[in-house]
Amino acid sequence: MTDKVAWTVELHHAAPDGLAPGLLFDVRGDDPLQQFILGLSVAYNDLKDLHVVMTWLAAMPTDGPGGETHSQQRDGMIIQQSKRAFACIHGILELLTAHRKLLRQPEVTRLLDRLSPRFRADWDAMADVALGRKDDPKSEMARKLAKIRHNFSAHYHQPRALLRGYQRRFFHDSKHPRTRFALFAIGKDLEDSRFHFADVAVEGGMFDIIAPADIAPFVEEWGDLVESVNRAIFGLVREYLRSRGWVET
Q: Counting CB atoms within 10 angstroms of each CB, which of 96, 130, 149, 248 has the fewest?
């Protein structure tokens, strides 16, 4: 690449702290709670990184040197990153489902009881969906998570769902300028080429989960959902760290 894109998002982080490795997780590696906490910690980092990338993409100007093509490339990248985030959230819900019995253990309930009301509400919404505790979720977060849990299938090995997204955007929601034609860019090399119609197909599936039919409000709602999920994870992992001897300074 010859053109460089300025990184416009600051990477905020606190000064690192630490525990002896054996205090955090023991050497045997067979403790279900420790496995669960590590899985959640990896998911938290994945979602946080995706959020940073989405924020960066959303902040990019839409009037770049390629004009409309530049805007379509940016919007397509936003949709693809959101697909990865939904896949990550789907994996988190599967993680909770697989550890259903663990979540009822006294050590876990004690950690959850220490969460602030806001963090606990986010955790309960996520657990209700993952464990099927409520057939009709009431909170907005839980309703979106339920759609991801039961309907999200924007994967390559499930092309029927992708085609439904294509049909929705091109045949039923065809008012947007990007859906007047099934666009693609065939350039001289891979870097210059993109199948924009594939982005629109994924977009159709995403908008079944988060309602706004345009990129800007979609990114805003997407960010709110990711923040709620990560708030729930952060609260539990932080309480686990405290239980292992970490003291906040």
A: 248
